[in-house]
Design brief:
This protein is mainly α. It is 57% helix and 0% strand. It has four helices and no strands.
Length: 94
């Protein structure tokens, strides 16, 4: 291993160069700013509305529950199989 090669590389990348440090009395006048577009604001409002909405459709659940209790609720095997395959396709990656 050549040590002199390290010093040549550090010279190229100037890793040993001293950086200028700003004195404590002087404060930089730069200020960070963030600008949110109208589309970003709309997205944020929509996201909050969705977060506040219930994930469960109570009227749909009540109708299914009533059908199950009455013994009249029936599930199509074809519909069930199609939805099962859709979910399977989403989860499988090749």
């Amino acid at each position: 291993m050549r040590i002199d090669a390290y010093s040549q590389i550090s010279q190229i990348y100037q890793t040993t160069k001293k950086t200028k440090v700003q004195s404590a009395g002087k404060v930089a006048a730069t200020k960070d700013e963030v600008h949110i577009s109208n589309m970003g604001r709309d997205y944020q409002i929509a996201k909050q509305a969705v977060a506040q909405a219930s994930d469960i459709r109570k009227e749909r659940v009540a109708a299914i529950k009533a059908g199950m209790e009455a013994g009249t609720y029936q599930v199509s095997n074809r519909s069930f199989a199609e939805k099962l395959m859709e979910e399977y396709d989403k989860s499988v990656t090749f």
